[in-house]
Amino acid sequence: MAGRAVARAARDLGILNLIGTYDVSALDDKKMDEVRDELFYLLGRHFYSKGEFDQAIALFTRVDINSEFYIKAKFFEGVTYVRKARGQAGRRGVQGRSW
After folding, report:
1. Residues 6+ apart with CB under 8 A from 45
2. Is the C or the N end of the chain the one with fewer CB within 10 Å?
3. What is the mean pLDDT of residues 66-84?
4. How many CA atoms lie less than 13 Å away from 77 in the CB half-sphere?
């Protein structure tokens, strides 16, 4: 229960940068079962905010389908794919231009 409260407080306080320092491999520990999906989601949001879209997508896809965070993770996974594609299109748009 305490782990879940910490994860919720982190989200509520907007300290995704602090969460971003968390070791993702530690989430495989059985002790993390209660908060794993929430932390996958929050870590995904952290990497999304940093523009690290592949890492964000990888984390969003790890949220279990039965989790209360599944819908949010799927939403941000889709948004991340769209933003990633726009970034690639933007790069193509400026390539070959002389400024």
Report:
1. 16, 56, 76
2. C
3. 94
4. 15
